[in-house]
Fold this protein.
Amino acid sequence: MRPVRALFDPVFDAAGLARFFSDAALLAAMLAFERELAEAEAALGLIPPEAVPAIREACRPEPFDPREIGRAAREGANPAIPLVSALRARVRGRDPAAARFVHFGATSQDVIDTALVLCARDALDAILGELDGLVAALAERAAEHRETVRAARTLLQQALPTTLGYELALVLDGLLRLREELRRARAEAFAVQLGGAAGTFSLLGHKGPEVARLLARRLDLAAPDVPWHTVRDRLQRPCALLVEAAGIAAKWLSDVALSAQSEVGELAEPAATGRGGSSTLPHKRNPVACVRARAAFSRLPGLLATLHASSLQEFERAAGAWHAEWHALADLFVLAGAVLAEARTVAGGLVVDRERMRENLERGHGLVYAEALRAALEPALGARAPRLVEELSREAARRGVHLRELARTHPEVRGALPPATLERVFDPLAQLRAALALTDTVVARARRTLGTNAAGEKRNGRA
């Protein structure tokens, strides 16, 4: 059993999702399954309608002790067995004849899978809210910084000019795609589980599939064509999508943390009293949201691997693989949601130092413009252009002189390029027309998706 750690767990639950997988939440979901199963079976004539009131009343979660049920669960390797036993005892105390219809036609995995799906569905709804908030914040920042020039970095080295808006648009594009896939998974993947001991509806007979469909409607879940006891893609797919979305957000937050280094100083997290402090260094302003998100994401691939490894389930009931999913599923949702929530906070109040970005861009002696200079010279100088630009670049680095100054005075460059053309070579925005247009495209798509306008307002009210 993974203990709740009051000292550590809150650090990695920025979205507050642990509540969806608490003992109380899981117990309530398991009892909701039992209550709605009885209602559905009575509606279809499989159990007496007069048995339902006692079952419904007994399914109130308050009298059940999760710790007691958990201790008893060791004997059967799952908590559904002692829960159903305790539930029958409670029903028997109200209506002895109704007790035999508790859990009728179901099996332990039906209860636990459905309960986990109910909890995961509610958690995903909260995560989708965080994701929408992140998308909205990134769209605002991308539009705001459409022409904020900074250095693109490849292998951690300055490469070419880019814009902060375009970098944000690339992140935004990935999150928009995953938002669509997650919403589709929300409608399709979270399905009720019902099939009985071997998935054959042995006690429910030909009405079994109809019971499953009615139960799904009552619980607001998808109705599968067949039980999915040992075919686990329904759970794995939304989990994989969450890890992908969290990965995009964590990648961006890693870039924010790198950009917040003292020697770079281009970006910073939102400031708040007591935030980002050190236990010993009073001057520190640490990128703590980025740190928390990176730590949370580092666990996600392993949790997803556990869920995928659980695909190896023997025949009609797994001997351990199913059980291994329980903690992994809950932790994955909590941590993925935390990453997205941290990114939303940072995006919403991102601190940008435009001057430092431009200063850092020019600090490399203008070598980020070497590609543009070569391209401008090639029509006139042909094969000489790459060699000339390489020579000028080496000289600029050796002498600590801006490449532009060397180009302005070099006779071959002056003979090949008019002054106005040369100035455009060293204008970063002149190289970024495609990036600017693509930024606009992604921002517009985000606003259409969220139904907001350029002011961040909902078309039918405030965002």
